[in-house]
Amino acid sequence: MHPGQIEVNEVTGYWTFLLSIDWKDPWLIGLILMHVLTTTSALLSRNNTNFQVFLFLVLLLAVYFTESINEYAAQNWSSFSRQQYFDSNGLFISTVFSIPILLNCMLLIGTWLYSSTQLMVSLKTAQLKERVRQERLKTADTACTEKHFKAE
Fold it and tell me: How far apart are CA 59 and CA 45, in angstroms?
């Protein structure tokens, strides 16, 4: 066991668990960069719904296969990691993989809800403007008709 590494049954709190992780492990840095890139893509593509839907589905598929990824990583951890992080409970992979992905999914859903509310506001504004225009036309037609009858 490496210094600072703790057994799963020794975890007394989530904070101690986070402190026991070697965040300078190259693959963890890559994973964090992947999460940052995903969040950036989600934010920058807020006007491209098709890409966002694709990203959302890919992220949900990644979360769906988390258990399989965890099992594979637990068997092959020595080829890419300095420590064996992958426990059978999935605490580590949930922390560094699934939770950030699900937060990105929530961000995408929030973006869609915001866009939907903006679209509904625009639609209602257009409906009200059309109603006012129709009432003005009706009023103008009525005034024109009355003027025409008085002239005759």
Answer: 15
- Give the distance from CA 32 to its chain's centroid: 16
pTM for the predicted model, two decimal places: 0.78
* Backbone φ, ψ for residue 2 (5° rounding): -80, 155
User: What type of residue is 9?
Assistant: N
Q: Which single residue is written with the structure tokens 């101690």?
A: 16
d(CA 63, CA 90): 12
User: One digit per residue, pLDDT tens: the chain, 152 residues?
Assistant: 444 455 655 667 888 888 888 899 999 999 999 999 999 999 999 989 999 999 999 999 999 999 999 999 999 999 999 888 898 889 999 999 999 999 999 999 999 999 999 999 999 999 999 999 998 888 877 777 766 666 66
Which among 64, 42, 60, 63 is positioned nearest to 51, based on CA atoms? 42
Is residue 20 within 8 A of residue 5, CB to CB? The reply is yes
Q: List phi, psi (to 5°) of 137.
A: -65, -40
Give the end-to-end CA distance of the chain in Å, rounded to a whole number. Answer: 106
Q: How far apart are CA 33 and CA 41, in angstroms?
A: 12
